[in-house]
Amino acid sequence: MPDVSQLIRYRKRQDLVFNLIGLACTLFGILALVVLLADLMIDGLPRLSWQFFTSWPSRFASRAGILPAWVGSLCVMSVTLVAAVPLGIAAAVYLEEYAPKNWLTALIEINIANLAGVPSIIYGLMALGIFYGAAELGLGLKRGILLAGVTLGLLVLPIVIVTTREALRSIPSTIREAAYAAGATKWQVVRYHLVPYSLGGIATGTIIAMSRAVGETAPLITIGALTFISYLPPSPIQSKSPFVSFEWLQSGFTVLPIQMFNWTSRPIADFQQNAAATGLVLIAFTLTMNAVAIVVRYRVRKKLKW
Questions:
Q1: Which of helix, strand or coil describes residue 244?
Q2: Is the pLDDT of residue 136 over 70?
Q3: pTM of the full predicted structure?
């Protein structure tokens, strides 16, 4: 029989080696991130100013700004949020709580998981086909913010569905059983127990999806996003009746990643600094969304404890 003490020492050495490898990989990733952020901050921080946020693009680097880019990003992300989140949550609730467990449901689940890994350019080509199909039918769909937001919404929809289902699965089955025992219907269980208790996880998954969407360029370029733009979308608020306008949904646009790409493609060093500053704005935008998700999750958990 093998020596037990020797076998234990061997297993401990294996654990130590595995821990050291994992620590080294983690430190390598953190170091790469720190170096990247440091490089962006060195180049981009001197360009960050109020003038940079409120100026139009220009052929002069010192005068160029990101006003149309960050406004376009906010507009596109708003449409993406409205298009993806309600549909994703509804689909996740149906698949997790209502759908029968058969081969059709299994096929749908497999396809949703596969769609999460489809390259983003495929969604751009799909949106381009929808655009030309709508043009042939005379529907008047333009290559604007609406088409871009729906395209990104379809891109991140599988992420919202998968994360919402995981949040619903994390709820103990005793909560469902207690609600059914009290005479609640399935809809009441979903409406008043499952969705509120999983709101923190849903918010986290939504922010992860939006964080991916805000950095996408390939599908937006495919459907005709502009690299240079000198106007803003029309305001959704009007001074005359009906006081609300949806013309901005059909407006041309650009976004922060495309503006960043436009500046990095230029050989002048000052434009490289503008691109670095735009990268810092994009990172800050993503971190802000994650901070919102953390606050929502904390408040939901605190409320549930009471």
A1: strand
A2: no
A3: 0.83
